[in-house]
Design brief:
CATH superfamily: HIT-like
CATH class: Alpha Beta
Helix content: 25-40%
CATH architecture: 2-Layer Sandwich
Largest sheet: 5 strands, antiparallel
Oligomer: single chain
Radius of gyration: 17 Å
Length: 136
């Protein structure tokens, strides 16, 4: 199922042009038009899922398999590493509400600073763990 007003659904359907890197039955991957760094790739499920919270398990598994496949391909092309980034939800700074993972190919000394500097957390890890751990 696609969503008519979703830019990624329009790209998948060919209504908006893209620079396709990879495609299979479940997944479409293409270069980010922002051109903020070389090879910045977006990997999306072909079915419209807003984010990781509502994505069907099958599609999420297929997206992650494609992310790994593309990352390995980039390593074979001579990149040293990749950053894989996802934002799920407005408060996590998700800007396009169709699940997507960013792959940023990396080279040694490329000068990119991907991870934010976080302010730190004062609550003891024991307390955080007690609240956050999964209970069977």
């Amino acid at each position: 199922m696609r969503k008519e007003d979703c830019i990624f659904c329009k790209i998948i359907d060919g209504k908006i042009p893209s620079f396709k890197i990879y495609e299979n039955e479940y997944v479409y991957a293409f270069l980010d038009i922002a051109k903020d760094c070389y090879g910045h790739t977006l990997v999306v499920p072909k079915a419209h899922h807003e984010n990781i919270f509502d994505c069907e398990e099958k599609y999420l598994a297929e997206v992650m398999k494609a992310v790994q496949h593309i990352a390995n391909h980039y390593k074979d092309l001579g990149f040293d590493a990749v950053n894989i980034i996802n934002a799920s939800g407005k408060e996590a700074e998700q800007s396009v509400f169709h699940l997507h993972f960013h792959i940023i190919p990396r080279k040694a000394n490329d000068g990119l600073k991907i991870f934010p500097t976080l302010p730190g957390e004062n609550q003891p890890l024991e307390e955080q763990c007690e609240r956050l751990k999964l209970k069977d």
